[in-house]
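Q: For a teaching handout, I want to show students what a protein-ligand complex looks like in token form. Below are the inputs, and the small molecule is 2'-deoxycytidine-5'-monophosphate. Please produce the holo structure.
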Amino acid sequence: MPIPDIIIAIDGYSSTGKSSFAKLIAGKLGFLYLDSGALYRAVTLFALDNGMIYRGVIDEPALRKALKVLKVSFKPSAESGKYHACMNGKNVERRIRTLRVSEYVSNVAELPFVRSYVDNILHSYGKKGRIVMDGRDIGTAVFPYADLKIFMVAEQKIRAGRRLREMEEKGEKATLDEVLDNLKERDERDSSRTVHPLSKADDAIVLDNSYMTMDDEMDWLEGILRERWPQK
Ligand code: DC
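A: Here is the structure, written as tokens, with 2'-deoxycytidine-5'-monophosphate included.
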């Protein structure tokens, strides 16, 4: 399907399947997939590695100073060609996905100077279009001019079930109630922070995938693309 060099912004709650959907869309259109959360995770990893988070408290002045020289970026992997997060030139994709990073990333992502640091990097990848980026504020703050904005939602219990299955596959143990509590806390945190909270852009299309398969989601997308960019 010939599509112009557009930016597709995908936002939504945790465990709504944003990254899986974004990756499929990017693959289908031959676009670049970028996971904005990976950069917040890389900054968090850096702060943890350098003793800037102690007993849950972030040393904000030290982190602010360090960000002036820290280089966080996306780079294509030699094997797969897929883009991964790098910190000072090193691939940190695996290290940013640990529970330790997940525990602190929301607090780090709340800091206004961290948000503007990450936003600057994200903007640099949007100049030529042809990207699918997912996150919490892509359609509202990072690329408010994105050509297509999708806001993903799903019932909380269904999201908790998906998250639990992912954790079980990685050998992590938890109950559905624990996962549900954590999800509620993250929903609340992401939606209520003062800088760039998670919220639907006025011109975003809502996709509720509670009872959809990936194939259903791709059919849904195809309908939207045909409607917006009809083939001549
Ligand atoms: O998508 P994720 O769980 O990897 O995101 C990690 C954290 O970063 C999560 O707490 C939400 C935050 N985040 C954000 O505030 N804005 C974004 N655009 C992307 C992620």
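A: Two things your students might notice: The longest strand covers residues 7-12. The pocket of 2'-deoxycytidine-5'-monophosphate is lined by residues 14, 36-37, 40-41, 105-106, 109, 135-138, 190 (CB under 6 Å).
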